[in-house]
Amino acid sequence: MGPVGDTIVGSVNGQHTEIPMGQVTSMKAIVTDKGKTIALAAVGGAATVAALVVVFDHAGGGAGAPDSYNILNVTDRVHNP
Q1: DSSP per-residue codes, the chain
Q2: pTM of the prediction?
Q3: Parallel/antiparallel/unpaired status of strands 3-4 and 15-20
Q4: CA distances from 31 to 23, 28, 42, 51, 60 (A)
Q5: Do the beta carbons of residue 26 and residue 34 sit within 8 Å?
Q6: pLDDT for 66-78, tens place per residue?
Q7: 4-61, pLDDT tens digit by residue?
């Protein structure tokens, strides 16, 4: 809602309110910045993907892990003892 004639019409604490312009001493508007929100979501998503890549890349074949953890080696041993 916005100004109607010389009266400001809007919602104050959830209730319909009309204030004559002569009584208005200051105004403040809160506007969200969608660009910053999208950028924050993109950075958070990229960080999550990077963390998952690091975790799963190092989960199976780390130093000292036996070859039997690798499904290709296990299958190879079954068919070629």
Answers
A1: --EETTEEEEEETTEEEEEEGGG----------HHHHHHHHHHHHHHHHHHHHHHHHTTSS-TT--GGGSHHHHHHHHH--
A2: 0.38
A3: unpaired
A4: 24, 10, 21, 33, 48
A5: no
A6: 554 555 555 555 5
A7: 468 888 888 889 989 898 888 888 888 888 999 999 999 999 999 999 988 887 765 5
